[in-house]
Amino acid sequence: MTLNKTQAAVLLASLLVLSACAILYELLISTVSSYLLGSSVLHFSITIGLFLSFLGVGAFFSKFIEAPLLPKFILIEILLGLAGGCSALVLYYGNVWFPNYYILLLLCVSVIGILAGMEIPLVTRMLEQSGGLREVIAQVLAFDYLGALVASLAFPLLLLPMMGSMRTAFFTGLINWGVGVFNLGVFKDSIERPIKLWLVAAATGLILVSGFFYSFQLVGFADALNYQDRVILSQQTPYQNIVVTQWNKDTRLYLNGNLQFSSIDEYRYHEPLIHIPLLSVPRCDSVLVLGGGDGLALRDILQHARVQGVDLVDLDAEMVRLCATNATFRALNQESLAHPKLTLFYEDAFNFVKKCSKKYNVIIVDLPDPSEPALGKLYTVEFYTMLKQILALDGVVVTQSTSPFLARKPFWCIYATLKAVFPCVVPYQSHVPTFGQWGYNMAFPLKINTDELKTQLEQRITTLPQLRFLNAQNIRGCFVFDTDVSEQPQAPNTLEKMELVDLYTSSYWDFH
Predict the structure, then answer these.
(1) Is the pTM of this model over 0.85?
(2) Which helix (H) or strand (E) holds 441?
(3) Which of 285, 341, 367, 413 is the most buried (most CB within 10 A)?
(4) Range with the poorest average pLDDT among 39-53, 97-111, 197-211
């Protein structure tokens, strides 16, 4: 079959769109896997590696496809649209019902990768009949790479924040399916008995359209299966998937599937994080909070009348807006996110600190655990050095430091990292029933007497009678570490050699 210029242009334009779809499937599967199982670096690496391998498998098998190529190319696009469109659905529900998630992951990636891998060889073979091979290869690869660029920009900036993972999958599948249908319409006179392809297209199109319009309900059902308690809110932001569950008086917040707090005992985490450092320094006029977009840490900070201003830095503006406007969160954080003493910054914490020239008396680091390099950089010598530069000489830095029981080595690695920067670091811990034993590290730019500090805390804690957990009798015990959680010497964590992430991911975690 010899193509005219218009038909050749149609195939090249189709390839641009199909290339974008292939990249979107790859990003979607990686993202869903990260939501369900954590460790985005691991799952993006696995998905990309497998996907590229199966693209090669598909390209290899394409040589066995005999003429006529056009109807087979159209059928592949229709089937690829169905497989890719349903991929998020399969992974969400398979994670609940199937015993081994990675078998499902392999199945999805293999089917999509093999079908997508056949596209370029088939299009190249069809175009070869209408022009020189050199020109055809140059055009095919140029359109393929351009499509990849479009997809890599559209996914994080438009598709995922606007539609979420499930609807984006069905939307991408519909685009892929639409390419096949469009080509079927353009080339219908060149295909023998096209009715079979029309019937297949109609059936798959019905599935994809239904999935697209009911995607939010499908996500809701999946969330209900994945979480033990009733899901009262599920929202996708440009940075994370937010799920809120409720059972009786227990409200829980999950980010990307990871539990952040339970309303029945979050105060046992926040009181030590906030009040111990604020009572440890002579002044706390100016406070910086890195993370803490839920407003709970801020709520406790504002209990201190000495605080004159708080700067809160959180990457996810949607998360902060949710916690500032949702009635459930407003009741929990006591509307702290609307307080006149607060200034909000929607920015990456590392970049904010790097360019900051303001001095703070207290810096609260309430960031997620160092489960991947993007978070691990916020627990490095380099980051703590920058914090020291914006800290007042008589101030204090405190960071949540994971569980010294469940993640003993990571906890003491954070301690060692702070010790590489600050002359005095004081570790402490509390018991949070939902999470177990939890740890913190305080760092001072000047040497202090820790015995005097504990006595001072016993005296000053009585000025905060509204506390539900800390008191003069138990606060000294926060600094006592039992034998099985005592210090284990670790090397400091640096940007060049981020050992903390490896230590953390090898620790035992199961918050689900």
Answers:
(1) no
(2) strand 436-444
(3) 413
(4) 39-53
Over residues 306-333, the pLDDT tens digits come to 999 999 999 999 999 999 999 999 999 9
**Cα 74 from Cα 344, distance rounded (Å):** 51
CA–CA distance, 150 with 233 (Å, rounded to integer):
31
Whether 150 has a pLDDT exceeding 50, the answer reads yes
Spatial strand order of the sheet with 250-255 comes to: 230-236, 241-247, 250-255, 258-262
pLDDT value of residue 509: 44
The whole-angstrom separation of Cα 398 and Cα 51 is 42
pLDDT at 268 over 60: yes
Residue carrying structure tokens 């910086």: 288
Three-state DSSP string of 316-359: CHHHHHHHHHCHHHHHHHCCHHHCCCEEEECCCHHHHHHHCCCC
Q: Domains of the chain, with CATH numbers?
A: 5-223 (1.20.1250), 226-261 (no CATH), 265-505 (3.40.50.150)
Residue 5: both structure tokens together: 């210029």
Active site residues per annotation: 366
Strands 258-262 and 286-291: unpaired
118: tokens are 């056949």
